[in-house]
Amino acid sequence: MSVFKIKIWFTACSLSLLLLAGCKDEVTEFENPYIGGKMPLGLKFNTASAIEPTQGSANDVVTVSVIGAEQYKTQLHFQFSGEEAEIVSIVGDVVKVKVPAAGSSGSTSIQIGDQVFFGPQFKVFGKISDDPYFKAKIGANNTIYDAYKMRSGKYLMVGEFTDFNDKGIVLAIKKIAETTYEGEVQRTLQLGTGVVSGYLSAVTSSPNDANIFVAGNMSAFDLKGPVKNITRLTSLGAIDLKQVDTYSSKNGGATYPKLTVPVFNGGTDAPIKRIFYFNNGIIAVGGVKYYISHRYDVGRTFTYTSGNTTLTGYRDSLVRDSVPIRQVVRFKLDGSLDNTYHFSGGTTLEGGNGNILDAVMQADGKLVLVGAFSKFDNKAAGGIVRLNTDGTVDDSFQAGKGATGYITSINWNSTTQRFVLTGVFSSFNNQPIQNILVLKADGSIDDTFVSGNFDSGYPLFAQQLSNGLIVVSGNFKKYNNVRRAGFMILSPQGGLAPGYNTLGELTGTINRVLEERNKDNKRSIVLLGSFRKFDSQAVQNIKGLVLED
User: Fold this and answer.
1) Which helix (H) or strand (E) holds 249?
2) Which residues are CB-neighbours of 18 under 8 A, at least 6 positions away?
3) Where is the DUF5008 domain (predicted)?
4) What is the average per-residue pLDDT within 235-257?
5) Which of 71-85, 296-310, 336-350 has the lowest mean pLDDT?
6) How far is residue 172's CA from residue 195's CA, in Å, rounded to a whole number?
7) How far lies 258's CA from each of 243, 250, 402, in Å?
8) In what order do the strands lie in the sheet with 356-361?
């Protein structure tokens, strides 16, 4: 290749010189920095007729138009979303390829040596697809953390969102929405403005939905308070309020009216992550250190002079009482502290020596906590512990030494009677297990599930469906060397479930999976979380899918 020069002209003059004497041009020459680089391959996709058809199933033969393909027929590799495809033939610019069994929706590409050429999108059909009955097409404008199914069949969804499916334009939706399973907003509850400042991370109710409980990071609900991260709603969805005598109303008579305050007089000093109803109480989990309640009957007197008369007045004082607690607290239904739970001799137990990242409750009221701790209540606990119904450590739980690392999520399926855990760990109870595992109800390892290898990331969430399939999300790019970017469905044995992994990349993560039968009596799921792109579609934190049995 001949050497050529690049001429760059610099104009060396100031505005004043320009006005007076004009400019002087100087020439500087540089050698071409790209000399010696690779020549173009003369290969590109024909955009006029790139791929035909644009969608299909595994093992279908697809025709791709690639200009210059024939000269590289012995070197050319074709991929569907990073998965190698069998090349059936290359004749001229026509390339025929077979959709790989592990192929998924997304970009096609050609690779020759270390050079990659990206082509058109291709949709791979499988046993999983969009649910045609799902109605939350716009979704929530911020994260959805949790959902609770009420007796009516409707759901309460909570999170950081301030709008849901564009319905907040008509009437405010602040961190809580009442919806159908299909994601259609309902207005039967009196939720008011919800949580204006802060967020909701958890929701549950007492039997028959007599009361609804919401928790997270908040100081008021429907602009009413005081609230400290948890409060109680009526069966109609309004914050449950009562009137109390204050110091002034007790001592000053009718001129000092009663104060309207929440019935649930209790809370925490830090945000709450999970809440559970059991046996006429609410158990809350989070990074909390103090239980907090309010006293309204405390006041102070003062005197003032009017003319020659000295008068006595009364002023209220809002006093916060606090009790040390550690990570787990049980409230009675009026918000008062149950100091028989996770207490000993009137003192809270030690709790974990690291953060609790998730929790689930079994039907018998036993609570399983996971996170980044190696001890709990001064007992060895490798990121997982189960508590009895009085909050003490359940020594019968057979998780043993737990994880060598930390556990990010845990979910319990009452149908399969299995826990599924994810995290950053390389072994569990001295057995080599990578990042995901299944436990039996007693905490012992279900060795019928064998975890695979994750590439470029980790699973952050997993939940088992009632048919045994396991929905997984995270920041990983591959599983067992198969391209699965952020989302996959595993078999009960831990392999990629055949036919259920044809959807494209998920950008973000899942916090909850709802499962029901849709109007065609097909198994359907609703994904809730923090994600903005899924299967090459723009989505907002909620997605409905249908699974073929």
Assistant:
1) helix 247-252
2) none
3) 31-120
4) 85
5) 296-310
6) 10
7) 6, 9, 53
8) 356-361, 367-371, 384-387
What SS3 state is found at 328?
strand
d(CA 241, CA 190): 13
Amino acid at 285: V
SS3 408: strand
Distance CA 159, CA 315 (A): 38
The first and second tokens of residue 381, run together, are 């606990």
Query: Cα angle at 407 between 402 and 408, to 5 degrees?
Result: 165
**CA-based nearest residue to 128, from 500, 508, 411, 541:** 500
**SS3 per-residue string spanning 362-379:** CCCCCEEEEECCCEECCE
% pLDDT > 70, the chain: 92
pTM of the shown model: 0.89
Beta carbons within 10 angstroms of residue 164's beta carbon: 29
Q: Is 8 exposed, middle or buried (0-12, 13-18, 19+ CB in 10 A)?
A: exposed
As a whole number of angstroms, the distance between CA 264 and CA 293 comes to 9
Residue 296 C-alpha from the chain's centroid: 38
Q: Indicate the DSSP class of residue 125.
A: P
- CA–CA distance, 113 with 90 (Å, rounded to integer): 18
Gap between the Cα atoms of 449 and 497, Å rounded: 13
- DSSP letter at 207 equals G
Residue 112: predicted pLDDT:
92
3-class state of residue 147 by DSSP = strand
Looking at beta carbons, which pairs linking 396-400 to residues 24 or more positions away fall under 8 Å?
Answer: 396/442, 397/368, 397/442, 397/443, 398/442, 398/443, 398/444, 399/428, 399/429, 399/439, 399/443, 399/444, 400/429, 400/430, 400/443
**Residues in the chain, how many?**
549
Q: What is the pLDDT, as a whole number, of residue 31?
A: 55
At 399-424, the pLDDT tens digits run 999 999 999 999 999 999 999 999 99
CA distance 65 to 370: 52
> From CA 404, how far away is CA 420, in angstroms rounded?
17
Q: Coil, strand or helix: which one is 507?
A: strand
| DSSP-derived secondary structure letter, 253 | G
Q: What letter represents residue 283's amino acid?
A: I
Residue 257 CB: number of other CB atoms within 10 A?
12
Chain segment 207-240, per-residue pLDDT in tens: 999 999 999 999 999 999 999 999 999 999 999 9
- Owner of token pair 């007790």: 250
Give pLDDT tens digits for 435-492. 999 999 999 999 999 999 999 999 999 999 999 999 999 999 999 999 999 999 999 9
The pLDDT of residue 316: 72
DSSP readout, 64-93? EEEET-GGGTTT-EEEETTEEEEEEEEETT
Tell me which residue of 166, 160, 161 sits closest to 136, measured CA to CA. Answer: 166
